[in-house]
Amino acid sequence: MSTNQIRVLLVSLLAVFAVSAVASSPAFAAEEFFTCQSSATGKFTESKCETASPPEKFEWLPITAAKKITGTSGNSKLEGTVAGLKLIIECKKDKTTGTTNEIETAGKNKGKILFEECGHPSEILRGNRKELTACTVANIEFSFLSQLIAGKGAGPELEFKPSPSTSKLFVTIKITGCALPEENKVEVAAEGDGITCALPEAEVGLVVHEISCWSTGDTNLRFAGKAASFTSAEKVEIETSKERWLAR
Fold first, then answer.
1. Cis before residue 200, ω within 30 degrees of 0?
2. Which residues pair with 144 in a beta bridge?
3. pLDDT digits (tens, 9 = 90+) for 124-161
4. Closest C-alpha among 198, 238, 234 to residue 63
5. Mapped to the 3 state alphabet, what secondary structure does the chain carry?
6. Over the stretch 173-198, which tens digit does the pLDDT of each residue have?
7. Is 202 exposed, middle or buried (0-12, 13-18, 19+ CB in 10 A)?
8. Which CATH architecture has domain 65-247?
C-alpha cells in the first residue's frame, strides 16, 4: 500500500470515528426545576435535602408534575418613549393571579401577573423626573411564558415571552386623561423573542426565590414601538407546600 493510500485510509477512519462519537454522545440535559423528593437512591436523610448521612431517603429530583406558584414584588419600572416623551411608568406592587401560575417539567414556567398602583407616569426632562398628574395609568395584567436557559454567569436564567407563543404582544398599557396616546403596546421585537431575567441563587434550595429583571441591556423589549427597559424583583414560592426548590 502506498503512502498516499495509507493517508486516505487514516482520514476515512478518523471521519467515521468522529461521526460515530457525535451520534453516540448523550445530549446535555436541559435546565430544570428540582424539589427534594423521596428516592430509593437518595443522598439525604430528610425532606429538606440538607443532611447527608444514613439512612439516605431523599434527593434533589426534577419535578414530575406542575406545581402552583405565587409571587409578589415591590416597585416595578418600565422606561421608554411615547409620542416623543421619555417616560417612566412605575407600579408600586404586583402579584401573580389566577390558577395558571406554575412551574412545570422541562424547566418551563407560565402565569398571569397583575401590576397595581401604577398612578401617574413621569417624564424625564432635562435630567429631572416630572410627574404627569393629568395622566393616569390603569392596572396592567397579562399572561406570560418562560423557560429556564443557560445563564451567562453562574446558574440558569429565565427567558420570558408573551403568551400565546405566537404573539409579540405582552400587554397594551392604557394611559388616560391627557394628550398621550391612550393605548401603548409592550411587546418583543419579533415573534419568538423574549427578555431574560436573572434567578439569583438558582442552584440553592430555597422556599422563596427572587427573579430579578434588569432589561436595560435587552434589545428585544419594545414600548410603543421604541426600545424600552424594565426592572423588577419578583419573590416566588410554591403556593401550598412551601417546599424548597431550585433550578439547574
1. no
2. 111, 162
3. 999 999 999 999 999 999 999 999 999 887 889 999 99
4. 238
5. CCHHHHHHHHHHHHHHHHHHHHHHCCCCCCCCEEEEEECCCCCECCCCCCCCCCCCCEEEEECCCCEEEEEEECCEEEEEEECCEEEEEEECEEEECCCCCEECHHHEEEEEEEEECCCCCEEEECCEEEECCCCEECCEEEEEEEEEECCCCCCCEEEEEECCCCCCEEEEEEEECCCCCCEEEEEECCCCCCEEEECCCCCCCECEEEEEEEHHHCCCEEECCEECEEEEEEEEEECCCCCCEEEC
6. 999 999 999 999 999 999 999 999 99
7. buried
8. Beta Barrel (2.40)
Q: How many residues does the chain have?
A: 248
Residue that is written with C-alpha cell 440535559 in the block: 29
Query: Where exactly are the structural domains of the chain?
Result: 65-247
Q: Cα 128–134–140 angle (5° rounding)?
A: 90
